[in-house]
């Protein structure tokens, strides 16, 4: 159940959003080692964000997963997601923070229960 919540101050149209969702889903699944059918991505564009006192393109993301995260994986994910943001939205990798959460099964609900 890897989940990526991504916020950016760049307005995102439907075509670009679809590309980002597809690319981020593939990257998350491949790097964490879980099926794409488990991955959820939330993308919020046009969110007011200032980074270093500037409103230039910037983004903030959070990755939550039950297992699969760690220093090596987190570095690969950070790089892959920064590349997607730079390519699709012109967000420089120096203007993107990402937080990783490795969670316990009992802290996630799905299908009327917990994992």
Q: How much strand?
A: 25-35%
Q: Based on DSSP secondary structure assignment, what is the total number of beta strands?
A: 6
- The CATH homologous superfamily is termed Macrophage Migration Inhibitory Factor
What fraction, in percent, of the residue positions are helical? 25-40%
| Total of domains | 1
Coarse structural class: alpha/beta
Q: Count of helices?
A: 2
In the CATH hierarchy, the third-tier topology is known as Macrophage Migration Inhibitory Factor
Mean pLDDT score: 95
How far is it from the N-terminal to the C-terminal residue, by CA? 9 Å
- Taking pLDDT < 50 over at least 5 consecutive residues as the criterion, the unreliable ranges are none
Give the ordered list of helices and strands. Answer: EHEEHEEE
CATH architecture: 2-Layer Sandwich
Shape: globular
For the record, the CATH class is: Alpha Beta
Query: What is the radius of gyration computed over CA atoms, rounded to a whole number of angstroms?
Result: 14 Å
Strand order of the largest sheet: 2-1-3-4
Largest sheet: 4 strands, mixed
């Amino acid at each position: 159940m890897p989940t990526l919540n991504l916020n950016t101050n760049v307005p995102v149209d439907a075509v670009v959003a679809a590309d980002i969702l597809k690319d981020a889903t593939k990257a998350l699944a491949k790097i964490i080692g879980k099926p794409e059918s488990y991955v959820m991505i939330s993308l919020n564009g046009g969110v007011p964000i200032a980074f270093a006192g500037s409103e230039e393109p910037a983004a903030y993301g959070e990755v939550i997963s039950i297992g699969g995260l760690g220093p090596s994986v987190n570095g690969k994910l950070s790089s892959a997601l920064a590349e997607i943001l730079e390519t699709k939205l012109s967000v420089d990798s120096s203007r993107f923070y990402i937080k990783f959460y490795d969670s316990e099964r009992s802290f996630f609900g799905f299908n009327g229960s917990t994992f």
